[in-house]
Amino acid sequence: MKIEEDEIVMPGDKLGIIEQYLPGEGTYDDDGDIKSSVLGNVKINQKMKVISVVSDAKPALLKVGDIIYGQITDIKPQRANVNIECIKDNARPLALPYMGAIHISQAKKDYLEKLSDAFRIGDIIQAKVVKITGDNVDLGSTDDDCGVLKAMCTRCRDYMHTTQKADELQCNTCNRKEKRKVSKNYIND
Ligand SMILES: [Zn+2]
């Protein structure tokens, strides 16, 4: 089987032998076999006899306005820290492990007395990127589709479901009620 230009290969796929080509970017020499080290497209420089694999899975960069999914890692009086897992509708991995924060004034449209009435550690949330300053990513969850997507009861750690009341969740097991800034996309299963 001959490898063709632009063919998509997986890490570990054999591309040829060392007598045919020089191993280029995205490849390695495995005891005389040239194999791909990345998922990407094969590029063959016929003049130089170099075979390479170019990965086009460029990492995603966050920008203002992006909708993200993340998890609450800490609640401070003024800000909830968020581990940003991925950008909505973007399958690419993030370039960096991003941390973001929701300031108490950006959590809800209405006045919020304390942040623990909107989020708790471990909550899965949707939020919007409102500002990026260097490494600091400010998030907001005032939109209806933003807020908590999935939360666990702080008493028994079972999942909770939405109730008739806005921004209230109830435990599936112990029936405890807790306040959250609930997204309209909350997952009730
Ligand atoms: Zn419970």
What does this structure look like?
The structure is a single chain. The chain has 189 residues and is mainly beta. The chain folds into two domains: 8-54, OB fold (Dihydrolipoamide Acetyltransferase, E2P); 67-179, Nucleic acid-binding proteins (OB fold (Dihydrolipoamide Acetyltransferase, E2P)), CATH 2.40.50. It has no helices and 16 strands. It has strands at 8-9, 14-17, 22-23, 27-30, 33-36, 40-45, 50-54, 67-75, 79-87, 98-103, 124-133, 136-140, 147-150, 160-162, 168-171, 177-179. The protein is elongated, with a radius of gyration of 24 Å. The chain starts with 7 loop residues before the first strand and ends in a 10-residue tail after the last strand. The model has no long low-confidence stretch (mean pLDDT 92). Zinc ion binds at residues 153, 155-156, 158, 171, 173-174, 176. The site of zinc ion has 8 residues, from loops.
Could you give a quick summary of the protein structure above?
The chain has 189 residues and is mostly beta strands. The chain contains no helices and 16 strands. One of its GO terms (molecular function) is nucleic acid binding.
